[in-house]
Design a protein that fits this description.
The structure holds 2 protein chains of 2 kinds.
Chain A (H helix, E strand, L loop, with lengths): L22 E12 L2 E12 L3 E5 L6 H8 L7 E6 L2 E4 L3 H8 L2 E4 L11 H11 L5 H14 L15 H13 L5 E5 L7 H17 L3 E5 L3 H7 L2 E6 L2 E6 L1 H6 L4 H10 L1
Parallel strand pairs in A: 3-8, 3-9, 6-7, 7-8
Antiparallel strand pairs in A: 1-2, 1-4, 4-5, 9-10
Chain B lengths: L4 H39 L5 H15 L3 H11 L9 H26 L3 H9 L4 H31 L11 H12 L3 H29 L2
Helix pairs in contact in B: 1-4, 1-6, 1-7, 1-8, 2-4, 3-4, 4-6, 6-8, 7-8
Classes of the chains: A alpha/beta, B mainly alpha.
Chain lengths: 265, 216
């Protein structure tokens, strides 16, 4: 597996400004309800460029909802969402499409397109969305498959791959769009235990060798400790505690955090 | 009653004419129903109810009135409005239109069966909506519905004798004509009965082969 990732850093059409630690994602007073249930309640939340932020907390606490809001898979009821200084919500559809190019997502259930080979899964969006020439997109797709350790699986269909391999293809597919932010939604939860390490290794590599901003929801506390700059503890739609992983995991201030950690660790 | 092989021999030239017409009606009718059904299914998914409502009413109407009535209407009433078509063309359109209102429901089920995660992945990759339909949703949906579409091909085959009512000489029409001219009913009717079984068996083999090819 190649550990240097020039793929992520070369300049491109929607050129990424240098990482300067400035604010990249911002949620202002965001409220999200599902029926009677208020999942996020006037949440303020921001992530700086290049940071690796992990969201932890009990299920139903709104972590995944934040990722889904950022990916525009669901809309907030109130509030504003800003990415890289541009409005993602509320915003006209055309602007949403532009801003969304800066965001990539990896799903719990991989969601690869089963009717396409691994290579085509990765090439599809760069060709149709970014207008990249086919041979260039294919070369990049091959490089990305190499990066995730699946150089020999170019022509495999998702059904011919293990869950771990599918998830690594999904990571490559998200990276192919050169997003500034990578959203990781419980990316190892659907995997057999022996396949988790391979996926986490790939993500660790990416975290170490690129300047991509990561926002993860995970129950893998070791992974969170390993790659995060910042851990946010969620409970009932609010951030109840945040800080560097060493602090949150070793000396949490809140009782609720202590309870949660003792339950999952 | 005696079985007369000579009658079979005499009927054969007419039989082959009838087979040809039946197959034309079946193949063209199927193609129309597959294409038009998909159009209906997609129109029913547009956000505008000014599209969905008329499409819903028309297809519901066509599905719930007899094919025979529709064939008569197309054949005898349309010319009064200045639209004259050959009997076979009318029949093909009638069968295709009628069955498109069934295939649309098959497509709808197939489209709804594509997991939400596929739409979400397409959104996450910023794929345009049209492209998402083309390369993600429809290939998966259609693959799922081939067996169900196949059942309607068999049903259409069994409805082709209705075309006799608008003067199309398909298999049954040829058999009836021959019977009336020669007063021999057993042989021609038996021959076309066997032919219906053979055609539907061959069609199901063809569809199963198609199904296997589409499995991923």
């Amino acid at each position: 597996m190649s550990t240097d990732a020039p793929l992520m850093k070369e300049p491109d059409s929607h050129s990424n400004p240098p990482v300067d630690g400035s604010e990249l994602i911002r949620l202002d007073q965001v409220t999200k309800r599902f029926g009677q249930n208020t999942v996020l309640d006037r949440l303020d939340f921001s992530v700086n460029s290049g940071k690796h932020v992990t969201l932890i907390g009990p299920s139903g606490s709104g972590k995944t909802t934040i990722l889904r809001l950022l990916m525009t898979l669901t809309k907030p009821d109130e509030g504003t969402i800003t990415v890289d200084g541009e409005k993602l919500f509320p915003a006209p559809e055309k602007q949403v499409r532009e801003v969304r190019k800066k965001i990539g997502m990896v799903f719990q259930q991989f969601n690869l397109f089963p009717n396409m080979t691994a290579l085509r899964n990765i090439m599809e969006a760069p060709v149709t969305v970014l207008g990249m020439p086919k041979d260039e997109a294919e070369q990049r797709a091959r490089d990305l498959l190499d990066l995730v350790g699946l150089a020999d699986k170019c022509d495999a269909r998702p059904s011919q791959l293990s869950g771990g391999q599918q998830q690594r293809v999904a990571i490559a597919r998200a990276l192919a769009m050169r997003p500034r932010v990578l959203l990781l939604d419980e990316v190892t939860s659907a995997l057999d235990p022996e396949l988790v390490a391979g996926v986490l290794d790939v993500l660790r590599d990416i975290a170490r060798t690129t300047d991509i901003t990561m926002l993860c929801v995970t129950h893998e506390m070791n992974f969170a400790r390993d790659i995060s700059d910042q851990v946010l503890m969620f409970d009932s739609g609010k951030v109840i505690e945040s800080g560097p992983p060493e602090k949150i995991f070793s000396e949490p201030e809140q009782d609720r955090t202590r309870e949660f950690l003792s339950a999952v660790l | 009653m005696k079985w007369d092989w000579n009658a079979v021999g005499d009927f054969m030239p007419h039989f082959w004419d009838g087979v040809l017409v039946t197959l034309q009606a079946l193949v063209l009718g199927s193609l129309i129903s597959f294409a038009l059904g998909l159009v209906w299914a997609l129109l029913m998914r547009t956000p505008s109810r000014w599209v969905r409502w008329p499409v819903g009413v028309v297809t519901e109407f066509v599905r719930n009135t007899p094919l025979l009535v529709q064939l008569f209407f197309l054949f005898y009433v349309m010319p009064e409005w200045g639209l004259t078509m050959s009997a076979l063309t009318t029949g093909v359109i009638g069968i295709g239109l009628h069955y498109s209102t069934y295939t649309m429901q098959v497509y709808r089920a197939g489209i709804e069966a594509v997991p939400a995660g596929q739409w979400e992945a397409a959104t996450a990759l910023n794929l345009p909506r049209l492209r998402t339909w083309q390369v993600v949703i429809l290939p998966q949906a259609i693959r799922r519905v081939v067996p169900a579409l196949g059942n309607y091909v068999i049903a259409m085959l069994k409805d082709t004798p209705l075309l006799m009512a608008i003067t199309v000489l398909e298999m049954l029409g040829e058999a009836r004509l021959f019977s009336q001219q020669h007063f021999q009913f057993t042989e021609p009717l038996t021959v076309i009965g066997v032919a219906f079984i053979v055609i539907s068996y061959l069609a199901s083999l063809l569809l199963r082969a198609l199904e296997r090819r589409l499995v991923h």
